[in-house]
Every structure is written in C-alpha cells, then in structure tokens.
User: Fold these one by one.
Assistant:
Number 1:
Amino acid sequence: MTEHGKVAIIGAGHVGSTLAYTLVTAGIVREVVIIDASQERAEGEAMDIAHASSFHAPVKITSGQFEDVAGAAITVISAGVAQKEGESRVALLGRNLPIVRNIVSEITKVNPDGIILLATNPVDALTYAALRMSGLPSSRVFGSGTVLDTARLRSELAVHYDIDARNVHAYVIGEHGDSEVVAWSVADIANMQLHAYCQSTGLTCSLEDMRAIEMRVRNAAYEIIRRKGATNFAIAAALTRIIEAVIRNARSVLTVSTLLQGQYGLENVCLSLPAIVGKNGVEKIISVPLSESEQQQLHRSAKAIHDTLANIVW
Ligand SMILES: NC(=O)c1ccc[n+]([C@@H]2O[C@H](COP(=O)([O-])OP(=O)(O)OC[C@H]3O[C@@H](n4cnc5c(N)ncnc54)[C@H](O)[C@@H]3O)[C@@H](O)[C@H]2O)c1
C-alpha cells in the first residue's frame, strides 16, 4: 500500500536536496525520505531541512535506506552524475545506467505499488531502461522529460512579451536534450496563437526572435552549468509540480517523458509529449496538432533517443 503523502528521493545532490526543500516548503506532502550513496550527505540534508520546520506546515523529513522507500507514493531518482563537457549521451548513459538499474531493483522490491519519477540524465533513455527493468506499467514509470524545458520556454516568452508566465502556454516536446522540439503551432498567450497575439498588441513576433528564444531554451542547461556548475532550482520546481499533480490527483497537462504507443507513428521509445498526470501517474498522452515540420523534428528526436538506447547492454 502506498501512502498518499510520502515521497522518497534517491540521490541528494544539487537536484535531490533542492527538491526535498522545495517539497517540504510547498506544503503538498506529508513525508519526505532522502537516500544517497553517501549516508552522511543524506543525513546532513535532512537535518538542515528539518530545522526549518517552524516556518512551514508540518512535514516529516528523514534520511534512510532503500527499505524506507516502502509505502512512498512517488520515488524520485536523481542519483548519478551529470554530463561532463563534451561527453556524449551514450557515455553518460553508460555511467548512470548501472546506478539506475541498482536503484530500480531495490525500490521495486520494497515498494512495488509506487510511482517512479526519473530526473537522472539522459532522462529519456533512462526512463525507458527503468520501465523495462522494473516490469511496472508505463503509467507508473516516467521521467521529468521536457517539463523543465517547457518552463524555460514559458519563462523566456513571458519576458519577451512582458506578461505573466502562467498566461503563456507553449510546449517543448521530444527529447530532454539537444534534439528537443518547440511546438510553436500550439503556443498561445491569452488563448490567441502567438502571431495573432502579436498583431493585436503591436508586439514583435519575428522568426529571429523566436529562433533566439528557442536557442536560449535549448542551451539553458549548458549556460547555467558554465556559470554555477549545476542546475537545481528550476528542475526542483518542475519535479515538485509533477509530484503535486500526482499527490493532488490534479490531472495536470505536463510534458513528462513517457512510453509512446503509436502517437505520431512512434512507439517503443520514451519521450515528452503533453500528458495528463494524476494519481495513477501518466493517465493519457495528448496528441496535439503539430505541423508537418514539427512532426519530422519529433521523429528525429525519437531517433536520437533510440540511437542512445541502441548502446545499452541489458
Ligand atoms: N532531468 C532534468 O531536467 C535534470 C536537470 C538537472 C540535473 N539532472 C540530472 O540529475 C542528476 C543529478 O544531478 P545533480 O546535479 O544533483 O548531481 P550531484 O552530483 O550533485 O548529485 C548526485 C548524487 O547522487 C548520489 N549517488 C550516486 N550514486 C548513487 C547511488 N547508487 N545511490 C544513491 N545515490 C547515489 C551522489 O552521492 C550525489 O549525492 C544528473 O544525472 C543530472 O544530469 C537532470
């Protein structure tokens, strides 16, 4: 039996520890347990976060071992290494696959009914691997995918149009990585397609502007890592948003990485498309109307993930 308000985080580095703090302050969970290969690190993070307890609603925060994952509604995997400069996705997969394999094997033993949410990169390939290794249904094993990239796109568009990011609806789909695709055909502000919004407001909507925004979104992780060594805040906020959708059964539309089953002629690959996320995990993938060119780019993105996976030794 899973407990509705319990979340386990495996990997308490930049991403996992920031997620733990964000979850605790967001007031959407009852219990957070942090596990890391370095037990000391997990203990230190849990102690530090617990000391903020008088500033927010009660949440139990502890560090633990794999057996403490038992009963978690969601287990987030944020353990592993980040991409080194110039490192290929295949090489990164080679380093993180054994870590994810071991974690999936341990957590499915103690918590077969929970949801597994992957953040470790390359997230699409590892989501597919975790799904196959776990034997769980695809609704319950999915990745953060392009939820972060979508947030970056909405934030860039919000700055460009000087408007609240919550009124910007636009998706990055496909791979969380270099081949990701901006679905411009379904981008809107205040229910108006971008060009119509620009016409009605007199704002610019040039191809160059949009290309520059797309480039900034695609290169965001590299730019941040070059400056501060890691990314943590926006990914933690993105993971918190996904967890909230599950815990509250919000049925939110989020671009999580999930197993495709024929959408746009694609299958046997995990990538991001807008999907409804609720208490059972990924409840439905939404096939939004994409242009011919966006569909071709999506196929190229799926191929990039396939090519990475082709190197997996199962
Ligand atoms: N999906 C996304 O949008 C996104 C965004 C940011 C980072 N990431 C990825 O998340 C991962 C973690 O990034 P980070 O910056 O937090 O790294 P980090 O090095 O700060 O932390 C990784 C943590 O994992 C732990 N760890 C390693 N092997 C483990 C194991 N077998 N069991 C338990 N814990 C283990 C380490 O001890 C460390 O504390 C990377 O793969 C990174 O690329 C993904």
Note: The chain is about 45% helix and 20% strand.
Number 2:
Amino acid sequence: MSAFVDRTELRHARGATSQFAGRGALDAALAELGELLAGRRVFALVQPPVAALHGGVLDRIAERVGELRRIDVPDGEAAKTVSVADRIWRELSVQGARRDSLVLAFGGGSVGDLAGFVAGTFARGLGWLQLPSTLLAQVDASIGGKCAVDLPEAKNAVGLFHHPLAVIAESDFLATLPEAELRCGLAEVVKMAALLDLDLLERVENELPKLLGGESDALAPVVVAAIRAKTRVVESDPEETSGRRALLNFGHTLGHALEAEIGYGRIAHGDAVVHGLRFALALSVARGGDAAFAARVARLLDRLGSPALPPLAAARLLERIGRDKKAVRSGAVWVLAQAAGEGRIDRDVPSELVAAELEKFLGARAGRPL
Ligand SMILES: NC(=O)c1ccc[n+]([C@@H]2O[C@H](COP(=O)([O-])OP(=O)(O)OC[C@H]3O[C@@H](n4cnc5c(N)ncnc54)[C@H](O)[C@@H]3O)[C@@H](O)[C@H]2O)c1
Ligand SMILES: [Zn+2]
C-alpha cells in the first residue's frame, strides 16, 4: 500500500498541464503546486456526495491557498447545463472572483466538464484545477482540455478547449466507487488499450476481478497507463483536426446512438460504449481487420458484465448515427481495430454494410446479457 505517483505533462498551445496520478497523487501535487496555490482565492465546485465521502481533501487544500470557497453543484449530468453555469458565473461575480482566482473541480467528469466551461468563459478565462474522483474522469474526462455543457437537444453542445493547470488523479478516491462506475471507467480503458497500449490491455485482462472490485493498488497503474496513452494522442492532435484524436471515439459511434435511443440515464455511458465497442469490433472484421484480435477484445468486454440491450430498431439507430455531430458530409466516421494495438479511422464504410452488420448484431445481442 505504498505511494506510487506518476507525474506527466500534457503540452498544449498555451503551455502545459501538470498531471499527477496514483496513490499519493494529492500529496505530491500539493507539495509541487505550493507556490501556485499560495494566497490564491479558489472556488471549489464539488459534487455533494463526493464531498461527503472525501471532504477532508477540501480541508487540506484550504490550508494551502489564500481562501477556499465551496460551491455545490447538482450531482451527475444535471450539472452540465447553461443555467447551472449561469448560477456559478454569478456566484463568482458576487463573491469577487478576480483574474488570479482559480476554479477547482472535485468529483466525476460532469463537474469537471462544467468547471472547465465556467473557468474558460468567466472573465475570458480563469486558471483551473481538476481532482477527478471517478475512474472514468481520471482516465478520460479530465485529460485533454475538452469542456462542455449540454443543451436539451444535444449532449456537450456548447463548450471549448480550456486546459487545466493541473490534474490530480488520486487513486484513494476510487475506493468508494460503486462497481457500475468502475465498469464504465474500465470500458474507456479498454477502448484506449486496444488501439494504443497492448501492455495495458493485458494488464486489464489479468487483473479484471481486482479492478472491478475497486482495489486501488490494481487501479493505480491502470490509471497511470491510460492517462499516458490519452496524453500522447491529445498531444498529437490537440483539437481533433488531423484525425488521430478521433481514435478515442472507438466504440462511440454506435455508443452515442444507443444512449440517445435508449434514453440518457436509462443506460450508462460506459455500458453503451461496451456495446458500441462490440459492434465496432464486428465491423472491423467485416472491413478486413484482425479477427483473432477482435475476438480477444470482445471476450474481455464480455467479462465486464454490462447489462443486455433492450430490443432496438436498427433503422432508428442508423438514423441517429447519421445525425451524430462527428459525422462528416459523406456519412458516419467509424473507428476500427485494424490489428492488435492499431486503430483505423474509416470514413467510407458502405451504409449497406453497417445496416447488415447492425441487424446481425442486434439480433444476436438483444435481451442477452453480454
Ligand atoms: N471532457 C471530456 O473529454 C470527456 C470525456 C469523457 C466523458 N466526459 C463527460 O464525463 C461525464 C461522465 O463522468 P463520470 O462518469 O465521472 O460521471 P459523474 O460525474 O456524473 O459521476 C458519476 C457518479 O459518481 C459519483 N462519484 C464520483 N466520485 C465518487 C467516488 N469517489 N466515490 C463514490 N461516488 C463517486 C458522483 O457523485 C456521481 O453520482 C459525462 O458528462 C461525459 O460527457 C467528458
Ligand atoms: Zn466515452
């Protein structure tokens, strides 16, 4: 149970984000960031359940800064609205936020996305820090500077790139996560491992029971490797223009359509991604990808134990896929597994092939546990 902290930088157009991950990440970060924090006014946006479980963390930060003001935000996706952002902009204004004030996000990816959005827009940009407390937020949402809130019409519809000064992914936070949250974070880990880091894939295969059991000694190195993998991709394509960052959407083309069709809140994002990855693997094989590797990743996804899909109409899903904001003029963008550790972005999958594979997939999977 010893400390194990990985310290990386994510370099971007405006500087660099200091990333601390592992057991003892909070101590390491507070030690290194002492000068940055000293005397500053910090507005901590927190998910109340996380503060209840890990409230001592805020007290420790309060000791290092000029002044810490806590602002509770609604739990979960409900935080990511323009009206919540508006309430916080006004609180910052009334409470005297200045250009050198900092915003801090403490909780899952929802509060991280909201806090980055508020920090990026208030006074044309305040510095901010992230303390991600879910596995999904530590490996994915907190890395890469994308911040957004939702509109009733579409998720993540209004946002910007605003990189935090630091990300502190403390493994001890993960000890209180329910298994469903761990499973959803692991879905994103598998997404990255399959295309970017085969050592990580093997580690997840070997340690899955411990990872699903929330053992922080097993989780810490997985978080570290996933952060490193995502950081490399983000640095190679910071604003998703050259295409490489799109590899992170593996499993998300169908995953997003499933979430929208089944209903947000009725299927977890990570579970939708698990089904989306299963389908992307089938499509990869149909487009000439390595069948043995696809079968290997599919076996791992099956072991995650996501709930079965309800009965769904292929035609409605195909329509949603065509409407996705990532779609290009010629149609949907598919991220495929070409070979072990090698992804491919395919913009030319014939829609008849997608339709035929989707019918097969839904027929085989609906009503059956994965
Ligand atoms: N910006 C990005 O690049 C990016 C990438 C992926 C996902 N996201 C966003 O992230 C969000 C999802 O993040 P999430 O899965 O962390 O969800 P979340 O923030 O809604 O948190 C899920 C639940 O876990 C609870 N929780 C958080 N930490 C806990 C802990 N340590 N112990 C016990 N319970 C805890 C929360 O109270 C909440 O109820 C979505 O809004 C998604 O759009 C953003
Ligand atoms: Zn995702």
Note: The first strand starts at residue 4 and ends at 12.
